[in-house]
Amino acid sequence: MGYIRWLGHAAFELYLDGYRVLIDPWLTNPLSPVTVDDYRDSVDLIIVTHDHSDHIGETIQLLKQNRTARLVAVYELANHIAAKAAAQDRTIGANIGGPFEIPGTSLRVALTPAQHSSSIGSPTGVIVFSKEATVYHAGDTGLFAEMKLPGELY
Question: What is the CATH number of the domain that holds 62?
């Protein structure tokens, strides 16, 4: 059975269809109940919504210690993180738009618009689709009218 676990700030752990997904894994935030070492060899997918340090968090370290974990982020940010983590072969750089499959899993992901600042690529929200649930994480965004569309479309 799947679950969603809040890890403090904007960080979340999803467990869907038997896959562990971390979104914006800032695990050293003061409210996080976990550490990077709690996820050694147990992460399947890491999604980063934008380039601020409280969202990238420990992504690079997690990619280095989880050699099969994939990274999803907007194209420019994905390439930036992948180069630092030597994870180019496990990185999916995407654009805002329709869902795409995560190879070797039953998961699909769609990046959504977000209204926030970001120096490397556009800020995004994310929708994770699985057989068990569909989860929308708005990223670090202010409210705007388009936020109702994921609920209407999916």
Answer: 3.60.15.10
Domain count, the chain: 1
Cα–Cα dist 10/139, whole Å: 7
- Residue 22 pairs in a beta bridge with 13, 46
Region 74-103 average pLDDT = 98
Q: How far apart are CA 20 and CA 101, in angstroms?
A: 15
**For residue 148, what are the contacts with CB-CB under 8 A and spacing of at least 6?**
none
Structure tokens at 64: 């280095």
Domain coverage including residue 43: 3-153
Nearest 10 degrees: Cα torsion 109, 113, 116, 121: 70
Bridge partners, residue 16, by sequence? 19
DSSP string, 54-70: HHHTTHHHHHHH-TT-E
Q: Is the pLDDT of residue 154 over 90?
A: no
